[in-house]
Amino acid sequence: MKIAIVGGGLAGTACAYIFRQHGMTPVIYEARDELGPGASGNEVGLYNPRFTAETGPEQEFYAGAFFEALKVFEVLEGIAWNPCGALHLVNDEKKAKRFPQTAQSWGWGPERMRMVHAREASEIAGVRIDYDALYLPQSGTVSPRALCGRYAEGVEVHLNHPVSDLADISADAIVLAGGMGLSKFPEAAHLPLRAVRGQVTSIQASAESARLRCTLGYGGYIAPAIEGVHCLGSTFQRWLDHSEIIGQDDLDNILRLYEYVPALQGEYAVSGQRAAVRTTSPDHFPIVGALDEARKIYISTAHGSHGILSSLRAAQYLAALLSGRGEAAFSEGLKERLSPGRFR
Ligand SMILES: Cc1cc2nc3c(=O)[nH]c(=O)nc-3n(C[C@H](O)[C@H](O)[C@H](O)COP(=O)(O)OP(=O)(O)OC[C@H]3O[C@@H](n4cnc5c(N)ncnc54)[C@H](O)[C@@H]3O)c2cc1C
Fold first, then answer.
1. How many CB atoms lie within 10 A of CB 205?
2. pTM for this model (two decimals)
3. Is residue 121 within 8 Å of 250, Cβ to Cβ?
4. CATH fold of 79-142+195-280, please?
5. pLDDT in tens, 222-256
6. Residue 174 three-state SS
7. Residues near ligand 1 with C-beta < 6 Å?
8. 2-42+145-192+283-343: which CATH topology?
9. Fewer CB near the terminus (10 Å): N or C of the chain?
């Protein structure tokens, strides 16, 4: 079964990887001259579930995504995977309520997710942390850019190939995985896709920051240094949809670090930055499923800020729909929640 995939970011390449495992033949069409030129092109990304206080479809989706991703990262080489652990700092009142509820209701057990006091958080992090935190010892960092490359290994890829009319494509099914680019297709024009620009900043580690052993999330985030460089993320601009570099964004990323991790205040040389546009939906949940069943058109988009995990689980779900195998692993509630039909 030949499946055409429009878009060579995480959503598209993850589909290609999973579809091959199901015996299908994926073909990727990417508008630009490389894989992952858009939101998926960062060298460093953090993989974390999106936390919800309650159990339900969202929890089912992100928990499934997390454990499936660990299995995949285990076997892929050259993706700069570092399961160093993640501390999500309780730095506002909402998190003070939500994080302990998450730790309890998700039921992962303390070896996978637990609340820690600031003192234990400091021991885990290797630097002083002033907040209690939700700790996920198996979370960490991976390279989204490298993932796109690995996912697409052995797959037919057409670069510099913008698709403008789906009638031009000959395949048994089509998966639209083009992020914000999908709004140009009449088939997807009714979907309320929203752009959210973001910029990550690379800074040279200081003697103190080089001690950092796990990722820290505090609204922004910092990853442990790789070859002396930290990735600091990320700005979040709902009102912008361009990927030009904004100098102030680097400062904002650094100032957010100073505010929530005062132990890491210091002079940092900025050694790089990258900006791109995330695709989101009004209910902050991915849009995945059949867009037009009769024409065999499917979609995977709106992966927001959690695309590393959600693109992979979305690919597994689409593979189940296309192959007719494995659908039982996804509850009816989750299928409805993911469905593009929820916006009709
Ligand atoms: C600054 C920033 C930091 C982030 N940090 C993290 C993080 O730490 N952890 C995490 O999990 N997520 C993170 N994200 C989010 C994550 O990167 C995205 O959710 C993910 O990359 C989305 O993948 P995608 O394939 O849907 O979109 P994209 O990567 O944008 O891919 C869409 C692709 O489709 C192509 N395309 C569009 N239209 C067409 C067409 N007509 N024909 C052919 N090709 C087309 C585009 O060129 C593009 O390559 C971050 C995002 C940003 C911007």
1. 20
2. 0.98
3. no
4. D-Amino Acid Oxidase; Chain A, domain 2 (3.30.9)
5. 999 999 999 999 999 998 999 999 999 999 999 99
6. strand
7. 6-12, 29-32, 36-40, 42, 45-47, 144, 162-163, 177-179, 181, 198-200, 233-234, 276, 278-279, 301, 303-309, 311
8. FAD/NAD(P)-binding domain (3.50.50)
9. C
